[in-house]
Every structure is written in C-alpha cells, then in structure tokens.
Design a protein that fits this description.
Layout lengths: L4 E6 L3 H9 L5 E7 L3 E3 L4 H5 L9 E3 H4 L6 E5 L2 E5 L4 E4 L4 E3 L2 E4 L3 E3 L7 H4 L6 H20 L10 E5 L2 H21 L9 E5 L11 H13 L3 E3 L4 E4 L3 E4 L4 E3 L2 E3 L4 E3 L2 H4 L24 E3 L18 H19 L13 E7 L2 E6 L4 E3 H15 L3 H17 L16
Parallel strand pairs: 1-2, 1-9, 2-5, 9-19, 11-12, 11-17, 12-13
Antiparallel strand pairs: 3-4, 6-7, 7-8, 10-18, 14-15, 15-16, 20-21, 21-22
Helix pairs in contact: 1-9
Length: 419
Amino acid sequence: MNNRRTVVIIGAGFGGLAAARALARAPVDVILIDRNNYHTFQPLLYQVATAALDPEEIGNAVRGIFHDQSNFSFRMGTVNGVDWGKQQIQLEDGDAIRFDYLILSAGAETHYYDIPGVAQYAFPLKSMEEAVDLRSHIMHLFEKAAAFPELIGRGILNFVVGGGPTGVEMAGALSEWFHAVLRKDYPDLDITQAGVFLVEAQDHILPAFDKQLRANALAALHKRGVQVLLNKAVATASVDSVTLSGGTVIPTQTIIWSAGIKGNSLSRLLGLPLTRGDRVVVDAALSVPDHPGVFAIGDMAACQDAQGRLLPQVAQVAIQGARHVARQIDRFLIGQPAETFVYRDPGSMATIGRNAAVVQLANGLKLTGFIAWLAWLFLHLIYLIGFRNRLNVLINWTWNYLTYDRSPRLILNHRWKRG
C-alpha cells in the first residue's frame, strides 16, 4: 500500500510553484491544480497590454516547468468546493481529489470597491486574456481615431489609469508607447492629443517608497506627459467618461483599473474565515484555524508581520510563505511542531519607462534613473521562469531599446466594455 501523504496546491502562481518546488525532495505526492495550464508572470502583464511583449513570453506551461520532479502531477481544472470531512477537493467537472495537506494559493482578483460603473466599463489587468483584450482595445481606438479624427475631441484617445505601483508602470508605458511607437504608425494623428491620466486617491504615489523616491517617480511621469491627479478618486464610470471625486469629468473610453485587489473568490466559496479584502485568516505558521493541515499563502492569505500589520500582496510574500509552508509539512511528517512565519522584506522597485525607475532595498540602498532601471530589468529576468522566456524577453527589450519599435501591435479579440 502507498502510505505517502498527498499535498494538493491550488493555484499556479508564484506561491503555488514555489511550494511545489520546495516539496521536490519530501516523501509526499504533490498535485497542483489550476484552471489554466500555464503560469503567468503577472508583473509584466502591463508590457503585454502595451505591446512590448507577447503573451507567450511571460507564460510558461506548468507541466514543462516540472518535467524533472518525480513526485509532481498537474490537474487542469476549476475548484468549486472542498469536502472538509472527506478531505477532498471538488472540481467543476465532478472529479474529486483527496488531500492530506492543502495549500491555498489561488492569488487575488480585481477589487472594484463597488464604485458605480467600474466593474462594467473598466479594464482589469490580472490575466493574459485581459492584457490581450486591453492591447487590442487600445489599437482599435487608434484605428478609429485615424479614420475619424473628430473623435479625438470626444476623448477617444484619453486613457485613465488607477493608482498603485502597477498603475504607475502602466501610465509610463502607455505614454512611451504612444510617443515612441504609435507616433510613427499614425503620422497623420497628433499624438500629443493622446492623454494619459493617473488617478491617485492619496496625496502621493508609490506609498511603499520614501518621499525622495516618490518625488523622483512623479517627476519622471510628468516628463513623459502623464497627468497625475492626486487626492482624486474615481466616483463613477460610464462607457464614454469617468467622473472623479470633486466632480471632474474626463471623457474616455479606456479606464484601466489597477487600483485594488482582493483575495480570490475561492476564499468565500470554501466558507473560510476572512479578513477585509477577502483574505483567509491564518495563524502565525500560515495554517488556517480549525483546519489541520490546511495552509493559505500569498495574496489569498491574511499574513501579518510582527506588529500585526497585513503583509502586502506581492510576489515575495507568496514565495517566502510557500517555502515556509513546505518546511512545516516536512516538520509535521516527522512529528515536529509548527514554526512562526517571518517575512524578510527585500525592498521595492517600480519602473516608469526607459531609463527611469526607483529602487528601495531593505538595507537602505536607494537607486533612481538608469541604474535603478537596469536593476529592475535584471531582477525581472531572474524571476521569469524558463530560459527561453528570459532570452526572448531580453531580445525584445534590447530591440525595443535600440529601435524604439514594438512588434506585437495586433488587434486579436477586441471586446467592448458595454455591460
């Protein structure tokens, strides 16, 4: 009889992959479940949306990642429930998968904060499909503007981006794309009329950075023509405009919602205790209370630091949490107690565009400009999965830098946000 324990991991994001890898030598069978057969490198989704990269360059087939791991298997499917008594995962297709240990790492989804019209008309940016949709939508608008220039006055080339680190990177990338690339594609269009608006509810951008770096990033955005609207929040959205707090109305057909995330809806489906933002309550070891052998990590978990503050929903929290949980499973198998999870913050970085970025490391080192931009490029290449993906991305970035050109400007599957 096979007495090996089975560890089921839900979600093939940063946390799920890190957990599966960390269990490679453990005497367990690892089953990873995800609705897609690939891992998405989410930090670069905005580059797919702005035609800097192709989708395949930031995605990697899960089965290919684990070719050499003998205790690993993959199941493509959608989880729609758990039978806690039988310790079985219920899949949408009716199949059931038993587990001894369960790691919840399904990530996050877009949070619209119940703002009228946003869920209906805004473009989220959490998946490969959404990035391709947004790219196609933007290209379609430029084609319409080229055919009917009078639409420019109605805001067809206005692009409103929600605040947050992704919003800052997206706003910088949009402006660079328009002025360096699309200006040549559409010589009869006055590209200066294409407006990029970054809407931030606080009185500053990039709250994770210190004041000096925030000011540097703000100056870099202004230099690129981005209109940064501080102390403003989206009040309502419609098919052809967005209304901000205070009554300002911006005519636009493109609202890019990067202003918030919440725990995956699977959290609610499983009936687990949740904090604000639908994050699963966990103890100091990342175990789910009253559910022995069940852990939650990454964006899905309400991980806390030593002061009781929720940890940010970033990749490093997921990766470190995954490795911690793998160690706890190893300890449980030999009868040892759980350990407290301690997160070690490596720092933060954000890029605003060519030769412009800000880096703040945990040791106090701060970088700006070209050096910070190179550091950002290097780190993202290191964490990108697969040698071929790294090589392709490096070639594309080099080509973009030298020629001011981008290749994947295709309108593939355009879908209007009309409810």
